């Protein structure tokens, strides 16, 4: 009340007080406004940084998921390709026995023996065709160049008619299953 009485009595003083009040209010409003703007800018910067980190994490997660999916597909493909490996190894013994049977000297005069050899030969051909359909293929033939990834050298001997590193004798055929060695060929190599 005392202020009101003073200003009522003195109009100049009242004008001066009114001019000072907006200046003080303006100073007070600029400081909080500037602080609010600075705070908003700071929060926007943090938001942008967080969004960038989130985007990076999302990209990394997607890449990891793609890698896992690709590895899983490869594992499934390998499982399908090589599921027959144990079975194929066991069948190889049967193939070897049929080949040994056909390698024995034949008595071509006896028709029953000839029919038996023909039956064994047909069985061997059918068995080889069956395993070939499932990706099993023989390796190691006389005259091939020695390959340590596919062949196991039992001995090296100089042999006429063969160049160095050529297979001269196949003691036991080797086999591949879809390009993977399941049994190396045991061979003799020319020195």
Structure description:
Homodimer. GO terms for molecular function: adenyl-nucleotide exchange factor activity; protein homodimerization activity; protein-folding chaperone binding; unfolded protein binding. The chain has a domain of 55 residues: Head domain of nucleotide exchange factor GrpE (Nucleotide Exchange Factor Grpe, Chain A, domain 2, Roll), CATH 2.30.22. The protein has four helices and six strands. With 191 residues, it is an alpha+beta fold. The strands form two sheets. It has a three-stranded antiparallel β-sheet. A hairpin with a 2-residue loop joins strand 4 and strand 5. The N terminus is likely disordered.
CATH topology-level fold name of the domain at 136-190: Nucleotide Exchange Factor Grpe, Chain A, domain 2
The H/E string reads: HHHHEEEEEE
Distance between the ends: 125 Å
Question: How is the main sheet built?
Answer: 3 strands, antiparallel
What CATH architecture of the domain at 136-190 would you give?
Roll
Strand content range: 15-25%
Q: How much is the average pLDDT?
A: 85
Count of distinct strands: 6
Helix-and-strand structural type: alpha+beta
CATH superfamily descriptor of the domain at 136-190: Head domain of nucleotide exchange factor GrpE
Keywords: Chaperone, Coiled coil, Cytoplasm, Stress response
Coiled coil: 33-71
Organism: Aggregatibacter aphrophilus (Haemophilus aphrophilus)
Subunit structure: Homodimer.
Question: Secondary-structure map with pairings?
Answer:
Layout: H1 2-9, H2 11-82, H3 85-103, H4 111-133, E1 136-139, E2 151-157, E3 167-172, E4 174-177, E5 180-183, E6 185-190
Parallel strand pairs: 2-6
Antiparallel strand pairs: 1-4, 3-6, 4-5
Helix pairs in contact: 1-2, 3-4
